[in-house]
Design brief:
Length: 390
Amino acid sequence: MRRFSSYGPVDKKNHFTVPRKALVKACMESLIGDPEEGGHYFTIWAPRQTGKTWLMQQVIREMESLCRDRYIIAKMSCQGIIIEPDMPEDTFLGKIPRLMLDGFDMDVDAPETWEEWLLFFHKRKGLFQKPLILFIDEFDSLPPGVIDRIVTLFRDVYLNRHDFHIHGLALIGVRAVLGVESDRGSPFNIQRSLHVPNFTLEEVTELFRQYESESEQIIEAEVVRQVFETTLGQPGLVGWFGELLTETYNPGAPNPIDLPVWEDVYEAACFREWNNTILNLIKKARGPYVRYVLDLFEKPDIPFSIHAEWCNYLYLNGIIGEEIQADRTGRKRYVCRFSSPFVQTCLFHALTHDLVGERFPILVIEPLDTLDEVFDKPELEVVVVAIGWG
Ligand SMILES: Nc1ncnc2c1ncn2[C@@H]1O[C@H](COP(=O)(O)OP(=O)(O)OP(=O)(O)O)[C@@H](O)[C@H]1O
Ligand SMILES: [Mg+2]
């Protein structure tokens, strides 16, 4: 039987998988663009553990079956390329043999200059006879100076694309707007950049339906809805709740996976079980913009803007999202929200532990408390209110 998976790209032979056909198709069409003139150079971006690498692998698989005769389709990953910020940018040139080996199964010597590397892709002087469709995963794990050099290089290729064999290029990472920092401009069409969205409720339901049909164990619709509403469909977290519900905390068939099981799982997810995505978010939230994160617990109307450095950072790292809201005058504007109720709860507990007594008194009401015990009574439960506000 297949399983849920919560880390690394899933494969449909071993894991429950949503096909996301429209996303795969959009990515393929962008890369191919105009088959004669060339495809697009763009970024595939989303916070960690949202399915970027899975999408890349899926697109490669489809393209290999549809247009392998026409294009060379290759992927490289910058994961594991260690270049410290104080090392010279040219250190990257020494890593090129490994990238070429991984991507093209080609054994080449390290180029001595950036221009020499560029010539690998030149139509007349280069190593390839066919146009390339190239994916570079984990691109933004490189230091900014190296990113800037490579983006500038691709810009030259793009401007002289009739001389080069790079037909389509997708750079994959957390940041959307690569090269914007570069004084020389970017070859990447930002409007075309492809964002990997969270799962919809239908997609989450589809995953659990696959589980039900293979395990023959019932999983109540309300549990599936809770998974969706708690995570807002964040793919890695959905996979993780899937593992907790169907493996770690599964009461075992013929018992159904019902709301009491969900409640145990939720409590464990908040306080007991490790999760890489959450650990990473907590680390980022404790970073340079912790003050803004703390403000978000107190103020519901902080304006959202991708042009504000702190907001951009928290957004691209999956800590916050945005919501449109009308103010008192009826004017609509974007305000910041945590990326999901689960992320909000985890950050709340992590940051209050850090700060007890230092910055704010612990909030009297937890951020997601609906105060049912107070309002679900015919009369206002003053004692509960008084104890709660102690
Ligand atoms: N199509 C899918 N069907 C089911 N689960 C998926 C799918 N895509 C992503 N996931 C979930 O997201 C997790 C992460 O996928 P993947 O490694 O592709 O993400 P990523 O964005 O490349 O992550 P990172 O930023 O860490 O490189 C998977 O382990 C799985 O739980
Ligand atoms: Mg990845």
